[in-house]
Amino acid sequence: MAPRPGTKFVTAQTRLAGPSHREHLDLLAVVDLCARRRAESLVLFETLGGWTRSDDSYVALTSPDDPFSRGDPIASAVRRRFASAAHRHAWHAELWAARMPLIPGVDVLDRTATARAQINTDDLKGGDSVSRRLVYFLRLRTIVTELDDIAGGIDADLDPATRRVIDLVRTDLTGLLDGRF
User: pTM score, two decimals?
Assistant: First the structure.
């Protein structure tokens, strides 16, 4: 199928966030998009999973002076919410992996590992539990904004699979932000 007149294609070297509505991602750019988003989802899954296992992650849930107690019903509710969110991020990683095009000669696992190495997680590790959660929610908002930008550049007729994954993940992340989990 010939491209539409005036269509500009985005290559793998082009920045993925924010393409105009006239650009379409080539296959290598889709691989890079999926690898980056999969890596990001895996990092969030592991981070939130670690928070739910760590005794010091939920200090200051009721007040800054309260020590963490496994018997605390508020802490237990927050732990369940973040455990649920961790599993949602694992599901997002699976969606991105399933969407990733398999191209002969292109190592998708290597691209995911490379993308993962470029993700800064220091902000999710430092500070107290309250500041880490704030950073997590700010990160979710950033991801939703980036997905909106990327979705604007993907023609649902030319690449419905990528658009569908973006829409699913975006809707789910919006639900996490709104507390629907």
Answer: 0.76
* Backbone angles phi and psi of 10, in degrees to 5: -95, 130
Tokens of 20: 């105009």
Cα–Cα distance for residue pair 52/77, rounded to 1 Å: 11
Give the Cα separation of 51 and 61 in Å (integer): 13
- The structure tokens listed for 34 are 């999926």
Burial status of residue 85 (CB atoms within 10 A of its CB: 0-12, 13-18, 19 or more): buried
- pLDDT one-digit tens code per residue, 63-93: 444 444 455 555 667 778 888 999 999 999 9
Confirm if 106 and 86 have CB atoms less than 8 A apart: no
- Number of C-alpha atoms within 13 angstroms, CB side, residue 105? 2
